[in-house]
Amino acid sequence: MILISAFLCVALARPAPTVLDQRFLPTHGLVTLAAEGSRLDVRTDQDGSRTDRSFDISALAPDGRILEARCGAWLDHEMVIVLAVQQGETTSYRYALSAFEGTRGGFEDENLLRHFVDRDQKLFLANPVFTSTGEPFRIVAVNDHTHGSDALEITFRRGWIKRAEDAAKIEEKILFDSCGGFAVEPLQFGRAVLLERGGTPR
Question: Within a domain: residue 60?
């Protein structure tokens, strides 16, 4: 009885994951993203059916803590999840691609396989698109105009506009990948670029 009571106390004391995003995606229903430390929880509710999945990104982002997460549609039945991950004084910005419906295929490349963050190979985490220090960038848009395609369009923004003159201080980075997929490096010459404020590709 004492052991059971102690276990319950520990369980009750553990903080609940923080909900970071909740939105409706046509093929998934209501999607809720929550995180605690390096663990990402993905819940989908559709037509009275609920699915809960949990992923730990610590192997690919040691000592990383998920600050922000936002999802969007990708392909016909999958989703892209964009993460801001704090590691010390640095924040990295990366995306994860789901393979919930078996879109992963038969990969044999060990380097690719290492980037699936779970044993069932349901979530692929690419290397960082970019990193920053200081105030983190916000994830402001994820595939809002590319539903049903394999393209990726993700917008990050830092700074706030309180007066008209503040507009010049806004920093913005936009990742555009015309043919997104399971690639370790998110920036690919001729296919995937990072545009920064004035449209300068990196």
Answer: yes
Query: Is pLDDT above 80 for 19?
Result: yes
Residue 7 within any structural domain of the chain? no
What separation, in Å, do the N-terminal and C-terminal C-alpha atoms of the chain show? 61
Residue 10 reports pLDDT greater than 50 = no
Distances (CA, A) of 110 to 4, 120, 181, 184: 43, 15, 16, 11
- Domain count for the chain: 1
Domain region containing 167: 15-201
Coil, strand or helix at 31? strand
Q: Looking at the predicted structure, is the pLDDT value of residue 6 above 80?
A: no
Whether residue 80 lies inside any domain: the answer is: yes
Measure Cα distances from 49 to 22, 76, 134 in Å: 16, 19, 41
Q: Residue 54 has which token pair?
A: 């949990």
Residue 179: both structure tokens together = 């043919």
Is there a contact between 163 and 153 (Cβ–Cβ < 8 Å)? no
Q: What pTM was computed for the model?
A: 0.88
The CA–CA distances, whole Å, from 126 to 2, 43, 60 equal 45, 21, 9
Residue 77, in any domain of the structure: yes
- The per-residue pLDDT for range 140-171, each reduced to its tens digit, is 999 988 777 899 999 999 988 887 776 778 89
